[in-house]
Write a structure and sequence with these properties.
By secondary structure, the chain is an alpha/beta fold. 26% of the residues lie in helices and 32% in strands. It folds into 2 domains: 109 residues, Rossmann fold, CATH 3.40.50.2300; 97 residues, OB fold (Dihydrolipoamide Acetyltransferase, E2P). It has a 5-stranded parallel beta sheet.
Length: 235
Amino acid sequence: MIRCIIIEDQPPAQRVLQKYISDFGMIELKGTYADALQAMDFIKTEPIDLVFLDIHLPKISGIDFLKTLNPRPNVILTTAFSEYALESYDYNVLDYLLKPFSFERFVQAVSKMPSPKTLPKDSKEEVRSISFEEVIFIKSGYEHIKIAVSDIRFIQSDADYTEIVTTKKKYLTQEPLRYWEETLDPKKFIRVHKSYILNLSKIQKVVGNQVRLDEKTILPIGRAFKDGFMKLILK
């Protein structure tokens, strides 16, 4: 679980971040602060993995506050002013969110978090290694639906959209097949055809130029993809 705080002086912006954090599901919000000085003592005494930091704050700006942090947690800057983007990267921030930002953009930023460091051996707390490929979010109307990656059987490209087929149902998404090819773990998902990406764990058997997931679900193996596919499953 990622431990985070919000440093943001505008209540509407606080509520947006709180809602996104809740919807994401793998982040624990430890506190919300209206200015950086309020948050300073908390950061010094409590372990924090991530800070959502507004740039325009009362008393001390987000950038000036960032300069004081040592050691520095992972930081995602939030602001309505794009002119600070270049300066912000001088401080190795994870990302820069320009308000108003969508939930998809929020997920993209948080997904840049590195995996948590292993605790010392004498620690009693167990930490599960976090992978941001454990879930994906599919936009459906005004909703964002969370899908467990392990439930995906295959993804099929069809004209202007892709269809994600899971063990439970199908979902349509506007992202191209290449987006999912770059997003999903290449050790678990492989492109077997110009129109298909396959979850290797769902394979029942390979027959010639076909992959069978069950007796009714048979996917083709494209000639250009067969060598790479066979090397992966036979290694």
